[in-house]
Amino acid sequence: AQSVAQPEDQVNVAEGNPLTVKCTYSVSGNPYLFWYVQYPNRGLQFLLKYITGDNLVKGSYGFEAEFNKSQTSFHLKKPSALVSDSALYFCAVRDTGGGNKLTFGTGTQLKVEL
Amino acid sequence: GAVVSQHPSRVICKSGTSVKIECRSLDFQATTMFWYRQFPKQSLMLMATSNEGSKATYEQGVEKDKFLINHASLTLSTLTVTSAHPEDSSFYICSAGTSGAYEQYFGPGTRLTVT
């Protein structure tokens, strides 16, 4: 069974500082990995994905994530945080072995303060 | 591109009544649609997966007779909560997938409140 862990319920960062939201995964085969963002009372917006190739993937709004197979991690990063980045972030994994179901982590609330 | 809509965005109904939620892919054909439920400050729980023209596949613990899913076309799926009870109050989110993409595209969600 596939699973995703987001160890931090909340991350606080000052505007202009770099941010990292952590994610580790477990799958039986090779993973497809995703990051989504959710604003209050809204659905999820796709940020970026790792399918294959370069371990560093760039996505929307200046976000990027690095796939690390040995550490089974896919941490989300941004060099300079904005107050408008404050939202709930979900990491998700899909097993390439079959099926198209996404398994989500529990989410990390990002708070960017002035 | 890849826009998914949901209707209604918010609904309040009385206990014992049924509520239908629509999910539409506006600019693409969705071969697969997914229905999730999200409790406050919690992750998304997959309820069921539906492919156009086929019966939905429900996750363990989800009552298929209570949560009726119809995927009548490549752009429309509906979730009907039958005989709703207050414990069914939640945020319901649909997503759609297409054969050419790895990611799912999510609708804006429907807030259901059962009184």
What's the pLDDT, averaged over the residues of chain B?
A: 92
Count of β-strands of chain A: 12
**Class per helix and strand makeup of chain B:** mainly beta
How does the major sheet of chain B shape up?
A: 7 strands, mixed
Count interface residues per chain for the largest interface.
A-B, 20 and 23 residues
- Overall outline of chain B: globular
Number of helices of chain B: 0
Identify the quaternary structure here: heterodimer
**Which word captures the global form of chain A?**
globular
The helix-and-strand class of chain A reads mainly beta
Measure the end-to-end span of chain B.
37 Å
Order of helices and strands of chain A: EEEEEEEEEEEE
Rounded Rg of chain B: 13 Å
Q: Give a quick account of the main beta sheet of chain A: strands, pairing sense, barrel closure.
A: 6 strands, mixed
What does this molecule look like?
The complex is a heterodimer of chains A (114) and B (115). Chain A contains no helices and twelve strands. By secondary structure, chain A is mostly beta strands. In chain A, the strands form three sheets. In chain A, strands 2, 5, 6, 10, 11 and 12 form a six-stranded mixed beta sheet that branches. A four-stranded antiparallel beta sheet of chain A has the order 3-9-8-7, with no helix packed on it. Chain B is mainly beta and 115 residues long. Helix content of chain B is 0%, strand content 52%. Chain B has no helices and eleven strands. Chain B has strands at residues 4-7, 10-13, 19-25, 32-38, 44-51, 57-58, 67-73, 76-81, 90-97, 105-106, 110-114. In chain B, the strands form two sheets. In chain B, strands 2, 4, 5, 6, 9, 10 and 11 form a seven-stranded mixed beta sheet that branches. In chain B, strands 1-3-8-7 form a four-stranded antiparallel beta sheet, with no helix packed on it. The radius of gyration of chain B is 13 Å and the shape is globular. At the A-B interface, strand 5 and strand 6 of A face strand 5, strand 9 and strand 10 of B.
